[in-house]
Amino acid sequence: MASTPGPSAQADPDWEGVRLHVVSGKGGTGKTTVAAALALALAAEGGRTLLIEVEGRQGIAELFGMAALPYEERKVATVSPSRLGLPGTGQGEVYALAIDTELALLEYLEMFYKLGRAGKALQKVGFVDFATTVAPGVRDVLLTGKACEAARRKGPDGRRAYDAIVMDAPPTGRLTRFLNVNEEVAGLARFGPIHGQAQAVMRVLKSPETAVHFVTLLEEMPVQETVDGIAELRAAQLPVGGVVVNMVRPPVLDAAAVAAVDGDHREEVAVALGEAGLGGRSRKPETVRAAVEPLLAPLLEQAREHAERVELERAQRADLQRAKLPTYELPLLGEGVDLGGLYRLAGELKRQGAA
Amino acid sequence: MTADTRKERTTSALDVDALIDDPETRIVVCCGSGGVGKTTTAAAIGLRAAERGRKVVVLTIDPARRLAQSMGLTELDNTPRVVKGAQGPGELQAMMLDMKRTFDEVVLAHAEPERAKAILANPFYQSLSAGFAGTQEYMAMEKLGQLRAEDRWDLIVVDTPPSRSALDFLDAPSRLGSFLDGKVIRLLTAPAKVGGRSAMKFLNVGMGLLTGTLGKIFGAQLLTDVQTFVSAMDSMFGGFRERADRTYQLLKAPGTAFLVVAAPERDALREAAYFVDRLAADEMPLAGLVLNRVHSTGAPQLTAERALAAAEALEENGSQTSTVAAETLAAGLLRLHAERMQIMARERRTRDRFVSVYPDVPIVEVAALAGDVHDLDGLRTVGDRLGSTDPAGAVN
């Protein structure tokens, strides 16, 4: 749990036994980044994880600085605890897969029906469009089905192909529908292999081997969506995992501090700013004070905005805590998320016990 | 980057007030990726236009609860309601889209009662109207067409669904139509038609294989549902196609203006670039880019480096005269300023990258608010920053 351990302390992993991590969140919260960081964190001490993208945005390729990923499992990173800035030994691998719905459906048909040339013909008459349109659930079954298949796949030596699967899932608003494929497909395909597949997928998704994590920011809308999403998943009896609070900025000054600067301490603060060299080169106190004056108001205004945000964030944090879920906090990376930043976030997740 | 080169790269400013004041502007479509303040922007533009004298309706898609409440929208009833509290000569109405109900209304309006009943009860229709990938987009466009046809407002501001990709939204009007018109459906429902047969022969696929495969995948029941649905809808097919085409033409017509909404972040601007490209490809009238949540400072003369150095000096060395508390406070102010300057520099770089690729797209920058918007005053503030009446919001 993210109960603020010291910088070097490392929490025990919270998700022992979970093989399929589904990562969702409102758009703009950085769920792809968090999913990738989680995949790295899970592989850090050895083993192999598969990171799956389902929305065709090629966000994973972009994060790892690669050309667009084909519909094929591909190694994107090698990772070790030291790469994440953590003690310990081992070395693991992260693979990635960007699922293409059309190819997935044809692959699936091929597996069951050995269509050969007929498959091509079906493609030509717009069959795939038709199939995924008459039953949007079919598309979702194919996507989640692929993740479940990878989670259970075994190599010739009988060992698991992957130790964990991380799925960068659709945004929270569509999540329950996406995961609750059984429900969705049941009304349409009442028999047949799609029906069977949906049943099998649901068994995996509802098992303790799956955890659905939410990524949020400390802002009203993402937090509200997270709280709603958690309730929806629980109602659908899908396993809720943890909450990752992303892009957290450390509080520097609170409202009380700002009030102090604004009130009784304004003069003292002005003097301190002057002594810090912001009053120019002059040694005369009046000149220094006059030079500092134009800075005071804008700096105070910024501090007020900051304090207001700190206050809002406190309220949002309280809302999240009511869900009583393991919660992890990732810092805002000032320069945006590059590969180095991604490893840093992975290290944070691991240190806080998410992996 | 020096001030001069920056100036050179900066595109023309987007004049939102001129846009919404122009009586020729009848539709404003706000599009962009999720999480950039698209709905808030649509609502703020609607309020501002109303308070500047226009009769406005805002069509929102899935607004945040408190934003909806701020406009008095407490229920999803698919009907425009007057927003109380808007000041000035115009009028503001707002509504939330109910996609299922909109679809039902289309059916009811275009089929005889008996047939409409059969369609509404069809399991396939029920799944299509609630879950079809693109139904929300299609119905947003349908509703827009209806509102425009009613001609009760002189400005319609539309929020768009947070689509998976930029393409969904513009494709929506034709997608459902082309689906219902599509080859597979034709083949399924009218295998005896000459066209159907020859098409199949040409592709060298037996009809049996197609229906057989579909049947195996979905079960025979679904196929029966689809066939019943399609034959019940048959008379409406032409209608769907036509309506979709009409809405699409409406979007292209003079009087419509697209605003692409983004935040000064890499991902959001990449999505914005998609929208700009796509609108250009479809010859849709792009008015410009609304760049939300841009940070600014009143003390640009103090660089991040100097502020940080001064903060460190205060924290490490202390001083002779001032108290420790004052030093901590001063250091805090400086650290916050450094953070602000760094954010601004990053935003500027992201923005400049966009501008260098799209020098012709007018941009308006909207200063970041400290908190969320949940009342009309908040919307008004955003509107002031979008327009030109708020000096604090003038980022450029």
Describe it:
The complex is a heterodimer of chains A (355) and B (396). Residues 1-7 of chain A have low confidence and may be disordered. In chain A, α10 (220-235) links the parallel β6 and β7. Chain A contains 14 helices and 8 strands. Chain A has helices spanning 31-43, 59-63, 101-113, 117-124, 127-134, 136-152, 172-179, 181-186, 192-205, 220-235, 255-262, 266-278, 285-321, 339-351, and strands spanning 20-25, 47-53, 74-79, 92-98, 164-168, 210-216, 240-248, 327-331. Chain A is elongated, with a radius of gyration of 25 Å. Chain B has 2 domains: 3-169 and 250-298 and 353-393, Rossmann fold (3-Layer(aba) Sandwich); 304-343. Helix content of chain B is 58%, strand content 11%. An 8-stranded mixed beta sheet of chain B has the order 3-4-2-5-1-6-7-8, with helices on both faces. Chain B is elongated, with a radius of gyration of 26 Å. Chains A and B meet through α3, α4, α5, α6 and α9 of A and α7, α10, α12, α13 and α14 of B.
